[in-house]
């Protein structure tokens, strides 16, 4: 037991450092976008904005990192003309996280987790991969209070959309963490999930396109 404590402490410190580093990157990108816009050095169709949009999508996919501020900075800078691109980058970033969740429950990842001492996590992911969606839903229904079953499981796409737009959702993993968990659960098929993401992330870009960036305050 004592020999396992240093290894556990090292993993916890590594996770904290990764989260802190990703958070610093998200805040730096937000400030960089705002500074470049203030200096008039960002062109909408230039390489700088394209790079920022790609970095925004990647940062948004990382759990516990509030990456949405980068997209908001671009919307406030360019208004309606940037809204479709920010919208697309948002869906892309959340899709990255969902895809990562699907990949993490693959057999190679499970084997790697088991080799590094995460046998329980590997076994859980292995069980999720080997059971069909309806069986997983029935098992989850047995562990969820009766009053919550309809919302948590049968209306899970609506619940996912609500969680994505929940203020302060970075405390429960942010958009990246929520979509990572959705991928791990294997309860969301790709096409319905993409439709859910498109609709859930639409309100702010559409408001900017219709009313203008002043709606962001």
UniProtKB/TrEMBL annotation:
Name by which UniProt lists this protein: DedA family protein
Lineage: Bacteria, Pseudomonadati, Pseudomonadota, Alphaproteobacteria, Rhodobacterales
Keywords: Membrane, Transmembrane, Transmembrane helix
Annotated TM spans: 12-30, 42-65, 85-105, 158-181, 193-216
Top-level lineage group: Bacteria
